């Protein structure tokens, strides 16, 4: 976790990433521009409270807030607990998955690693190559790899643009080089459709459209909703996301209902 870069340099990097001037940040954080300048240049050593105040206004993720504290000579504030040890948070995630039994739902971390899923996710991952579904399965690789869900995705160009756009937002938010490496890997995957393909006039979100031989028209359609924990104080909890998929048309609704009736 330790960083060889001074805390002032790190804070300036976050300010630049957020495209804020020193004046803008100073006003937001309730400090003087002079003091902020001194902190960024190393002429003034910030207190623990000052580091946390600036990080809050820069919307620095909890993992990186710990790194700022260490760089400033303080102990990390936010613990990082494994999901298995999280108790109430883990139970809440499982209740959400269990309560979403009709439709697919997945739990991922900041790296988009698949942590948990409910049974209907098998409808999405049917036919995915085994090498993509191992212990370190990554949902973006599963979605966009040519041996993954991509080969069944009717609107691959549109869905790919949507997922890569979400990933780029996470890179901007976190500055995580591992996410940038993942992005570079994913953009190299082949795609024979233009991206983005504009959504149709009746679409209100970007849908995921999958080929499926057992439904009229041969296609299932989904939209998704992402849930996160509010005001987390643990790095793991802060980085958890639950993506729940819902039918985007009547054909998919009826099919999922009929499948649920056979389970």
How many strand units? Answer: 5
Helix content class: 40-55%
The fold-level CATH name of the largest domain is: Beta-Lactamase
Report the structural category.
Answer: alpha+beta
**What's the architecture of the largest domain, going by CATH?**
2-Layer Sandwich
What's the level 1 CATH class of the largest domain? Alpha Beta
Uncertain parts: none
> Radius of gyration over alpha carbons?
22 Å
Q: Shape, please?
A: elongated
Q: Gap between N and C termini, in Å?
A: 46 Å
Order of helices and strands: HHHHHHEEHHHHEEHEH
Strand order of the largest sheet: 2-1-5-4-3
The biggest beta sheet reads: 5 strands, antiparallel
Mean pLDDT: 93
**How many DSSP helices?**
12
Q: Tally the structural domains.
A: 2
Estimate what percentage of residues fall within beta strands.
5-15%
Record keyword descriptors for this entry.
5 strands; DNA binding; 44% helix; single chain; 12 helices; 434 Repressor (Amino-terminal Domain); MLTR_LBD; 263 residues; DNA-binding
């Amino acid at each position: 976790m330790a960083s060889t870069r001074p805390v002032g340099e790190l804070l300036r990097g976050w300010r630049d990433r957020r495209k804020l001037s020193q004046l803008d940040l100073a006003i937001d954080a309730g400090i003087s521009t002079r003091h902020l300048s001194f902190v960024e240049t190393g002429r003034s050593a910030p207190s623990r409270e000052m580091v946390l105040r600036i990080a809050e206004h820069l919307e620095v993720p909890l993992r990186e807030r710990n790194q700022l504290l260490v760089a400033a000579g303080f102990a990390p504030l936010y613990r990082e607990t494994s999901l298995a040890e999280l108790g109430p948070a883990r139970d809440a995630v499982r209740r959400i998955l269990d309560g979403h039994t009709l439709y697919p739902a997945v739990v991922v971390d900041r790296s988009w690693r698949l942590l948990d899923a409910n049974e209907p996710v098998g409808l999405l991952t049917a036919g995915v190559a085994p090498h993509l579904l191992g212990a370190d399965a990554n949902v973006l690789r599963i979605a966009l790899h040519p041996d993954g869900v991509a080969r069944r995705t009717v609107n691959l160009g549109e869905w790919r643009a949507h997922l890569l756009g979400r990933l780029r937002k996470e890179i901007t938010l976190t500055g995580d080089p591992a996410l940038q490496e993942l992005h570079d890997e994913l953009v190299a995957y082949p795609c024979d459709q233009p991206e983005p393909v504009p959504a149709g006039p009746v679409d209100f979100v970007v849908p995921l459209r999958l080929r499926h031989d057992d439904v009229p028209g041969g296609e299932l359609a989904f939209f998704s909703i992402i849930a996160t924990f509010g005001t987390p104080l643990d790095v793991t909890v802060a980085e958890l996301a639950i993506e729940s998929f819902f039918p985007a048309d009547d054909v998919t609704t009826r099919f999922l209902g009929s499948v649920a009736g056979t389970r």
